[in-house]
Amino acid sequence: MSWHNGDSFEQFAILTPRLIIVPTTTAISFNSYRALYSELHANPEFCQMGFGPHFPARTWNDDETREIIQTRDIERCWQKRGLGDFAVGLRGPSTFDSDIQSTQNGGFTVLRGNDYTRVAGLNNTDLTAFEWVAYAGLRDATTTSMPPRESGDPALPSWDEMIELRYGVSPKFWGQGIVQEASKAIMQWSVDERGVKRFIAETERENSRSAKVLQKLGFKLSDTNYWKEPSELEWERAAK
């Protein structure tokens, strides 16, 4: 399936029991999602837990936030592999018609075509009304986050075995399983539709919260040392 044609991307949404999950190729246009993304990266507690000293908290205005999402995620990730970040929003129990026909797989639903249009409404009017509380993403780590390979380093596996899971959730919603629910859905979506074979992740050693999320998703500690950061733990999980 083609996901990118010039400046146009496939439009779709993933539904889970509690969440609506929309690729940032669409969500970049939502004021509320850009505000969430900026708010998270300006929060010292969030940045310290998620990134340690590698990414201190910083404040971006709306134009800067849009540019960062465009260059770091859409251009580097979605355009290259058809993978990237997703905006994660809360859905109510009666948000969607019960007769929507779409792909059902493992506890999530993918909406496309007429089904997506019914949810999105004209000019995304309906999508902007959701409360966006997190992001969850998958990216080819070989072209995004891996440090340069040096002489003597072992060769990296193929890109479809180097898909990095990343996520961030508003502190107001910590401990509610939102990242786990969203990540499980997008991981299975990537296996079904992008042929992903293996996932990897990294956490700060002190970040026990993220470690527990990864363990619940089936990740195990690895000794790969891809990122070459003594302050970090590395994780992996084969696709199912």
Report on the architecture of this protein.
It is globular, with a radius of gyration of 17 Å. With 240 residues, it is an alpha+beta fold. The protein has one domain: 3-Layer(aba) Sandwich (Aminopeptidase). It is built from seven helices and twelve strands. The strands form two sheets. It has a ten-stranded mixed β-sheet with strand order 6-7-3-4-5-8-9-10-12-11, sandwiched between helices.
Topology overview:
Blueprint (H helix, E strand, L loop, with lengths): L3 E2 L2 E2 L3 E3 L3 E5 H4 L3 H11 L2 H8 L10 H20 L3 E6 L12 E3 L2 E4 L1 H8 L10 E10 L22 E7 L8 H17 L3 E7 L3 H9 L3 E2 L10 E7 L2
Parallel strand pairs: 9-10
Antiparallel strand pairs: 1-2, 3-4, 3-7, 4-5, 5-8, 6-7, 8-9, 10-12, 11-12
Features:
240 residues; alpha+beta; Aminopeptidase; ten-stranded mixed beta sheet; 7 helices
Task: Briefly characterize the structure.
The chain has a single domain (12-238), classed as Gcn5-related N-acetyltransferase (GNAT) (Aminopeptidase).
Estimated radius of gyration: 17 Å
Compressed to H and E, one letter per element, the order equals EEEEHHHHEEEHEEHEHEE
Give the CATH H-level superfamily.
Answer: Gcn5-related N-acetyltransferase (GNAT)
- What is the helical fraction, as a range of percent? 25-40%
